[in-house]
Amino acid sequence: MNTTELTEYIKNYLENDRTRSAIMLTGEWGCGKSYYIQNILTNELNKNNQDLAVVSLYGIKSIADLNKSIYLELRAKKAIKKISNKFTNGNNNKSGKFYKIKAWFKKHGKEVASGTLLVGKTIVKGVAGFFNVPVEYSDKDLERLFASINLDNKLIVLEDLERSGIDIIEIMGYVNNLVEQDGIKVLLVANEDEIIKYEDNEQLDKENEKKAIKVPTSKSREYLRIKEKTVSDTIPFYADLNSSVENLIKLFNSKLSDEALKTKTADGIPLIVEEIACVMLDVKCSNFRALLYSCQKTLEMFLKGGKDYNIQYFMNILCSNTAFALKLSQNSNLKWTDNLKSPTELGSYKFPLYKCCYDYMKTQYFDREQFEKDEEAFIKQKDFDVKQKDLQGALDILYNFYELTETETSDAVRTIYGYLTEDVSYFPLTQYGKLANYLIAVRQCVDDEKIIDDCKEQILKKTRGIVLDSVAIYDLAYHNGIELWTAEQRDEYNKFMEEFLGGIKADDIDISDDISSPQDIQKLVKNIRANSSRYIGRQNFAQQLDIDGLLKTLPKCNAKIIRELRGTILGVYSSINIKEFLSGDKLSLVKLKEGIGKLLAENKIDDKVKKLQLEWFVSNLSDIIQRLE
């Protein structure tokens, strides 16, 4: 049942139901039940001049307090509606209290009068007192006052049933009296999973063997017994995710949030709404309170920045903050551990969390300088991604030229040449051989053959002087491509590859030197950082390490050296697809992990900070080993 159908169902219950029973709306915390009641149901009922009193049971400790809350909700709102026009249309009263109330009505009067604004309880009570609606009663007066209000054609909505300070059995008995004896229409709103509790019970199965099963507790059974008599229908609440997300973002009415909603998908859904909905599905949590929190914190950060920010950066931050807020709603103890794992673990794979956002959401510390550096890096990466997408389109045309036209092929080659001339390299080194192969193949199919030679020269210019080990150079000579069909083409290709490979310098490097001192580890770290791509190209990084020497030397190192070694090794294995080219390292990494674990178990580490660094190292190695399996 979507929200439109749910609203029609409730309207029909209010107008036509004769069963003298309540109805219940149930759903997990944060799924949007309260938002639906306050922003959709209230609006629709007021359009039909149907009143409702929405009372949260949270914190209410007695039936007398509940009666008082319902009375105030109906009486005070009636008083506010009755006089709102007087304030918005002018009044000669000049008291200080008058000006405060008038200012409020000037801002909200029309909304109150039309019923589209759900007035906060504190404001209701304050305004009610101003208009001589008493808010303090003796318990003896409450029954008389409550009985004095006319509840015909009114819907009493009792929220947070599971959070009430009143015993659940007493509340259900109270509701039963309202609906059965007084004919009042009541909508209960609850997370029923928090009400019905289960316990283990043993029963005999068909073979007379004992079997443990879950059964409701005695209190839950009593609740279910009274509910069966009191509640006719229980409706699971499922919000329209896209509509709910969009409406919630609109609540903030800011320049950035409004601008973010303008970009639409092909289906007409705001892109930011679709992205946030996908984040919720990815995190497996659709807590709308968490989304509210994320929107609030995100907008606060952009306001603190005090400048015009890139709208795509705002959308990216909102999505990553939302992922974090959703995860926080499930586990409030989440912590930032390191810059490699935490961004995606606390955010999501598509929207990793920024450290400065984590700091602000957890500690209220805002690093404006870092926030702007992150924006600059984001824009550069976006620009790079856009250009790579454009380039990939041109490459797809080149690699399928035999099905296309001369004009399409010529335009694609010109696009490729433009990207070859840029300072930034958009081509993986391993793709240059295939690219040259196809450029030579299309020479006779383009409108300007000279551009083929220009492209080849740019490839040579970009790769001339690069230092690789012999294994990586050997691999560059092999690639998939198109079979060249003339002797001239094959001769041109062979000459190009000879010059291409000849311009790359061979430099076999070795990290298998013995390790016997902290200085050796520092030298190793420096060597790895300078040549990490070449180590990966050889496909046997950890196998070259002196694991025994490392294990003997680590107790002699300070925390800084251990941290540097740990971070450097993590960097080597940071690629997503390491299993493809470093799977042979598993045994060496297991040996290193188990060796460090033994050092810790045998208390051979004399400093608690060093011990913590090594514990983190073991955890990092476990993650890498798992990814290699």
Question: How would you describe this structure in keywords?
Answer:
629 residues, alpha/beta, Rossmann fold, five-stranded parallel beta sheet, two-stranded antiparallel ribbon, 27 helices, 60% helix, extended
Short description:
The protein has helices at 3-16, 33-47, 63-89, 96-114, 121-130, 139-148, 168-181, 218-230, 241-250, 255-260, 271-283, 288-305, 311-330, 342-346, 355-363, 368-399, 406-420, 432-441, 450-463, 470-476, 487-502, 518-538, 547-553, 559-572, 579-582, 586-601, 608-628, and strands spanning 22-26, 51-56, 154-159, 185-190, 198-204, 210-216, 231-236, 467-468, 505-506.
Explain how this protein is built.
The chain has helices spanning 3-16, 33-47, 63-89, 96-114, 121-130, 139-148, 168-181, 218-230, 241-250, 255-260, 271-283, 288-305, 311-330, 342-346, 355-363, 368-399, 406-420, 432-441, 450-463, 470-476, 487-502, 518-538, 547-553, 559-572, 579-582, 586-601, 608-628; strands at residues 22-26, 51-56, 154-159, 185-190, 198-204, 210-216, 231-236, 467-468, 505-506. With 629 residues, it is an alpha/beta fold. The strands form three sheets. The chain has a five-stranded parallel β-sheet, sandwiched between helices. Helix 16 (368-399) packs antiparallel against helix 17 (406-420), helix 17 (406-420) packs parallel to helix 19 and helix 18 runs antiparallel to helix 21. It folds into four domains: 3-236, Rossmann fold (3-Layer(aba) Sandwich), CATH 3.40.50; 241-366, no CATH class; 381-506; 518-628. The protein is extended and about 100 Å long. Helix 7 links the parallel strand 3 and strand 4.
